[in-house]
Write a structure and sequence with these properties.
Blueprint (H helix, E strand, L loop, with lengths): L16 H40 L13 H6 L3 H32 L5 H9 L6 H11 L8 H13 L9 E2 L5 E3 L5 E3 L8 E7 L13 H5 L7 E7 L23 E6 L2 E7 L5 E4 L8 E4 L19 H26 L3 H9 L4 H29 L3 H6 L5 H4 L2 H9 L6 H30 L1
Parallel strand pairs: 4-5
Antiparallel strand pairs: 1-4, 2-3, 3-9, 5-8, 6-7, 6-9
C-alpha cells in the first residue's frame, strides 16, 4: 500500500485583504473630500447655468409660457443675430490665423535678438491689461478727432506731408459783396473785369490762427493796375473791435496771404497766382477782353480729418486690431516654448546642407511646430468665440449693431434693452454648441501630447 503525500498551500492569513480594501476606500474618501469643493463650484457656476439656460431657451420672454423651438427659429430670422453670426465668423477666420502667424514670426525673430527676454516682456505686457482698460485705450486711440485720436493724428500728419491743407477752410464771402459761390466751393466775381481794373475781394469767417504773417491790405488796395494787367487784393472784410464799412478795405483790415487766385476767360483758366502777405495779387500781360477772377475751392476745402476707424465699415477690423495687440504676446510665448524644444541638430544639418533661412523655416521649423501651432490656433478660436468686452466698449452706440458678435448680441437681447431672456438663452446655447467641438479637440490634443 502506497501512501500519497499532497502538499497543501498555507491558507491566507485571516483578514489580510480587508485592511487593503479599507485603505483604498479611505484614499478615495480623502481624494473626494479634496475634489468636492471644486465639484461644488463647477456644478454651481458651470453645470447649473448651462442646464438652466438650455431649459430657459424653450420658454418665452417672461419665462412662463413654453414655446418649444420658437426661440431658435426666431434667432435665425433676426437680422441682428444673423449679423452677429457673420461677424463672429469673421473673427474666427481672421483673428486666430493672424495671431498664430504673428506669434510664429515673432517667436522665430526673437531668438535672433540680443535682448530676447525684454522683447518678450514688452510684447506680453498687454496681457496684464484688462479688456476693459484695453477697450478704453483703443476707444481713445481710434477717436476721429486728430487732436484726440493718436491713429488719426498720425494719418493726418502723413497726409499733410504729401498734400497741403487748404489755407482758409472756414472763410466765406458776404452775400451781395460781388462774389458768387460755385458748386465746387469756389468764389468768383459777379461782374467781369478787364486789363487795367483793380478788384477787392472781401471774405469773412477767417480763423485768427490762419492770419499768421498777414499784413494790412489797405495800401495794396490803393495801388492802381498798370496797362495790360488786372490787380487786386483778397482781404478779411472785418475790422477788429468793430467799425469799418462792409465791402471797403479799411486801414486795420488784414490781407489774406497764400490765397490762390485765377483769371478765367470763356470758362478757361488763363492765369494763376498766389496772394502776397498783404493779400495783393496781379495778372500781368493779359490780352484785352473780359475776365472773371476766381478763388478756387481748394482755398476753402475742409482739412483732412483722417479715417473713420469706428464707422460701420471699419469697426470690426478696428476691434480685431485691439484684440491682436493684447493676444500677440500670448501666441508668441507659447510658440516660442515649442520652438525651444525643436532638435537643433536637425536645423543645423539643414543649414550645412545648403538650405537658407527661409527654407529651414518653411520646410523644417513649421512642420515640427505643427502640433503647437494647432493648439495655439484652437485655443484662440475658443477665446475669440467668447469675445465681449472689446466689442462692447470700443464700438460706439450708433455702430454697435454693425460690430456685434454672438456674445454681445446675447447680452443685448437678454439685458441690454431686449429683455428677452428666452431668446438670449437660445443664443447662449448656440454659442456653447460652437465652442464645445473646439474644446474637445483641444483636450484630445493635450492628451495626445502627454502620451
Amino acid at each position: 500500500m502506497t501512501a500519497t503525500l499532497t502538499k497543501v498551500a498555507p491558507a491566507p492569513a485571516a483578514g489580510s485583504a480587508a485592511p487593503r480594501r479599507r485603505a483604498r476606500r479611505r484614499g478615495r474618501t480623502v481624494a473626494l473630500l479634496f475634489v468636492l469643493p471644486a465639484l461644488v463650484l463647477l456644478g454651481a457656476l458651470v453645470l447649473y447655468p448651462v442646464l438652466f439656460s438650455v431649459g430657459r431657451s424653450f420658454f418665452d420672454a417672461s419665462g412662463t409660457r413654453f414655446v418649444g423651438g420658437d426661440n431658435y427659429t426666431e434667432m435665425f430670422r433676426d437680422p441682428a443675430t444673423l449679423k452677429a453670426v457673420r461677424n463672429t465668423t469673421v473673427w474666427v477666420v481672421v483673428a486666430p490665423a493672424l495671431l498664430t502667424g504673428l506669434g510664429l514670426i515673432l517667436a522665430v525673430l526673437v531668438e535672433k535678438v540680443r535682448w530676447a527676454t525684454a522683447f518678450k516682456l514688452l510684447l506680453f505686457m498687454p496681457m496684464a491689461v484688462s479688456f476693459l482698460a484695453a477697450g478704453i485705450i483703443f476707444r481713445l486711440a481710434y477717436d476721429e478727432d486728430p487732436d484726440k485720436g493718436v491713429l488719426n493724428a498720425a494719418v493726418v500728419g502723413v497726409h499733410d506731408v504729401f498734400r497741403d491743407a487748404s489755407s482758409y477752410p472756414t472763410a466765406r464771402a458776404r452775400d451781395g459783396q460781388g462774389l458768387t459761390e460755385g458748386a465746387d466751393g469756389s468764389y468768383r466775381t459777379t461782374a467781369t473785369v478787364s486789363p487795367g481794373d483793380t478788384v477787392a475781394l472781401g471774405l469773412v469767417g477767417v480763423a485768427q490762427k490762419d492770419l499768421e504773417g498777414a499784413e494790412p491790405a489797405h495800401a495794396a488796395a490803393a495801388r492802381a493796375a498798370g496797362p495790360g494787367e488786372v490787380r487786386g487784393v483778397v482781404y478779411l472784410d472785418f475790422t477788429p473791435g468793430g467799425g469799418g464799412k462792409q465791402g471797403a478795405v479799411d486801414r486795420r483790415e488784414s490781407g489774406l496771404p497764400a490765397m490762390t487766385v485765377e483769371a478765367e476767360r470763356e470758362g478757361r483758366t488763363v492765369a494763376s497766382t498766389t496772394t502776397a502777405a498783404d493779400g495783393s495779387f496781379r495778372f500781368p500781360g493779359l490780352e484785352a477782353g473780359a475776365y472773371t477772377v476766381t478763388l478756387p475751392g481748394s482755398n476753402f476745402a475742409p482739412p483732412y480729418e483722417g479715417i473713420s476707424w469706428l464707422g460701420p465699415t471699419l469697426v470690426t477690423p478696428a476691434v480685431i486690431g485691439a484684440y491682436l495687440w493684447i493676444w500677440t504676446g500670448f501666441a508668441m510665448v507659447l510658440i516660442g516654448a515649442g520652438l525651444s524644444t525643436l532638435p537643433r541638430d536637425t536645423l543645423e544639418a539643414a543649414r550645412m546642407d545648403g538650405a537658407n533661412e527661409w527654407q529651414v523655416f518653411r520646410r523644417i521649423t513649421v512642420p515640427l511646430l505643427a502640433p503647437v501651432l494647432t493648439v495655439v490656433f484652437v485655443t484662440l478660436v475658443i477665446n475669440v468665440m467668447k469675445v465681449f468686452d472689446l466689442v462692447y466698449i470700443i464700438a460706439p452706440g450708433p455702430v454697435q449693431e454693425d460690430a456685434t458678435v454672438l456674445a454681445t448680441q446675447m447680452w443685448l437681447v437678454s439685458f441690454g434693452g431686449g429683455n428677452d431672456q428666452g431668446l438670449g438663452s437660445a443664443l447662449g446655447v448656440l454659442l456653447l454648441l460652437l465652442v464645445v467641438p473646439a474644446m474637445v479637440f483641444n483636450v484630445r490634443r493635450f492628451k495626445g501630447s502627454q502620451r
